[in-house]
Write a structure and sequence with these properties.
Layout: H1 2-41, E1 67-73, E2 79-83, E3 106-108, E4 120-124, H2 143-148, E5 151-156, E6 162-175, H3 190-197, E7 200-201, E8 211-217, E9 224-233
Parallel strand pairs: 2-3, 4-8
Antiparallel strand pairs: 1-2, 1-5, 3-4, 5-6, 6-7, 6-9, 8-9
Length: 234
């Protein structure tokens, strides 16, 4: 009987060791996966392909032909190519090189004109930690931060022939199912709507009838969206 219990204890110890090793491997994989996602999201290697006003990116740049613009918000991590596809799903999990990536890309709403000639254009991006991708938008809920980071640039097209200045002027949270702010086809009197509902408004910059909104998910509800509005100056 004693030998039986000794054998049982040895078997129990081996099972527990096996379970511990499996749990450790799962934790290690989770840590690696988290590191990989944020390392890829924060990879600024594509910045060397950024077009300049009046001079486009090189012909051999690996960023796909779906790139329609490049957005920069001065003093933030927002300095990314803007992609656009036939639908709003493609670049949720593809990076600007067309490779699978959980961090996805910054992309223009498929209903908008690729040349940003619409009165109201919508950009989407994942909300990542450490201010990566559109995780940087959280800071604009602070009025002082917005005033100190209100300038940016939008370079349209791969050839860099068109460049606009940006002025960040408002920030708010909405629900995804509230289509007022996220439907470029039916939106009317956007300026008045923003003035009425914005949480933070920067009144120190000049107005424009040409508006772009940056949209990302935000806590605590997955359907919540954080919106940051920019004037586009032609």
């Amino acid at each position: 009987m004693r030998r039986f219990w000794i054998t049982l204890n040895i078997l129990y110890e081996k099972i527990m060791l096996f379970v511990f090793v499996i749990a450790l491997l799962i934790v290690c994989y989770g840590l690696y996966d988290t590191w990989y996602v944020y390392n890829k999201a924060g990879d600024d290697g594509y910045l060397k392909y950024k077009p300049r006003a009046g001079s486009g990116m090189s012909e051999d740049a690996p960023i796909t032909e779906d790139m329609v613009a490049w957005i920069t918000i001065d003093g933030t991590n927002i300095d990314y190519p803007v992609m656009q596809a036939a639908d709003n799903m493609k670049y949720l999990n593809l990076n600007p090189y067309g490779e699978y990536s959980l961090s996805g890309s910054i992309f223009l709403d498929s209903r908008n004109s690729a040349d940003f000639s619409d009165d109201y254009s919508i950009l989407y991006g994942h909300h990542m930690e450490y201010g990566v991708m559109f995780g940087a938008l959280d800071e604009f809920l602070d009025e002082k931060y917005m005033k100190n980071h209100s300038k940016g640039t939008l370079i349209v097209g791969r050839d860099g022939s068109v460049s606009y200045e940006l002025g960040v002027f408002a920030c708010m949270k909405v629900n995804e199912y509230d289509k007022k702010m996220l439907d470029p086809d039916s939106l009317e009197n956007i300026s008045a709507l923003i003035s009425e509902e914005a949480s933070v408004i920067n009144t120190s910059i000049k107005n424009s009838d040409h508006i772009m909104v940056l949209s990302t998910c935000t806590e605590p509800v997955s359907t919540n969206r954080l919106l940051v509005f920019c004037y586009i100056y032609e």
